[in-house]
Amino acid sequence: MTMFRSKAPAARLLRGVAMLAMTLTMGGTMPACAAKPVNLTGAGATFPYPIYSKWFDMYHQKTGTQVNYQSIGSGGGIQQVKAGTVDFGASDAPLNDQRMGEMPKPVVHFPTVAGAVVLAYNLPGLKAPLRMTSDVVAGIYLGKITKWNDKAIAAANPGVTLPAQAILPVYRSDGSGTTYIFVSYLSAVSKEWGTTVGVNTSVSWPAGIGGKGNEGVSGLVRQTPGSIGYVELAYAKQNKFTVAHLQNAAGRFVEPTLASTTAAANGAAAELAKDVRTPIVNSPDPDAYPIAGLTFLLVTKDQANAAKGRAIASFIEWAMTEGQEQAADLDYARLPESVVNVNMTNLLSLTSAGKPLVAKR
């Protein structure tokens, strides 16, 4: 299955990228890489840190621009953008309208890669991955499905002998972008969840126990037979967890993979073009894994320092092209061409003293 399914020819995108790379200076008359290298500071999300670290190193070697990034969590990144102590922030949870209004200046969101949140479980003896519907996932975390041999789980897994064992749902006790993606999915598929629990980086869980970070959740799942918990796909792969295949909006049971995560973003392309903050959970794409999300760079729209603004824009352009080639090696899902195009368009909105940093061609 191909990663990119946009109708725009790849050659057209590359020509556009080439023109954009030549205009990332104030006057649009010389390549951005010819400008004097600057140092940038950023802070925020821990989930994309491995790929950001690799990107910043590669980009430094290519351009001389050095980026000091502190992996302090999405909330910390948002606060530092608000305080103006960093050149950019990073968050797995986009700013809602209220938080956007609290920022001293307008902020532009640039998704960089996509990630999946998977359900890892501890049921020794089961060979094939369990299938789960959205009703089952919501029911478990609402505390309404309490046994592994519940008829709703059995219905999705014909021929599988399920134990009459209690289910222990495990969740993140700390605020996190991973939680934000997971509860966004639960709110999308369960009206009860949406009205009683809602969406945030931290919520009041109706059932289960909490663990701090991916490490805490995975430790509890690993040590507790009958448990189930949500972790990032990259983390699950690295730790060789057994994960559930989930039924998506098209009715198909889908394995969480890099390809099915990219498909989730592609399925939401039309809405992302209107507002890049749009959740990509429960995507209508028939190949999409349903619990997926984007991680974002948060960039002040009007940059106080034009040189730094041009450097940020140049880096984002690079990350959307050459940088995407590094995603799969680090277990991240690359962006579909449709979302790359949205980012390229949004680069044109960046200014300094009201003047565009990227010349429109």
How would you describe this structure to a colleague?
The protein is built from 14 helices and 13 strands. The protein is an alpha/beta fold and 361 residues long. The chain folds into two domains: 10-115 and 274-279 and 293-356, D-Maltodextrin-Binding Protein, domain 2 (3-Layer(aba) Sandwich), CATH 3.40.190; 116-261, D-Maltodextrin-Binding Protein, domain 2 (3-Layer(aba) Sandwich), CATH 3.40.190. The strands form three sheets. The chain has an eight-stranded mixed sheet with strand order 2-1-3-11-4-8-6-7. Strands 5-9-10 form a three-stranded mixed sheet. A two-stranded antiparallel sheet has the order 12-13. Helix 2 (49-63) links the parallel strand 1 (39-44) and strand 2 (66-71).
Write the layout of secondary structure elements.
Elements: H1 10-21, E1 39-44, H2 49-63, E2 66-71, H3 74-83, E3 88-91, H4 97-102, E4 107-121, E5 131-132, H5 134-141, H6 151-156, E6 168-172, H7 177-189, H8 191-196, E7 209-211, H9 213-223, E8 227-232, H10 233-238, E9 245-247, E10 253-254, H11 258-267, H12 269-274, E11 292-300, H13 306-320, H14 337-347, E12 351-352, E13 355-356
Parallel strand pairs: 1-2, 1-3, 5-9, 6-7, 6-8
Antiparallel strand pairs: 3-11, 4-8, 4-11, 9-10, 12-13
Helix pairs in contact: 13-14
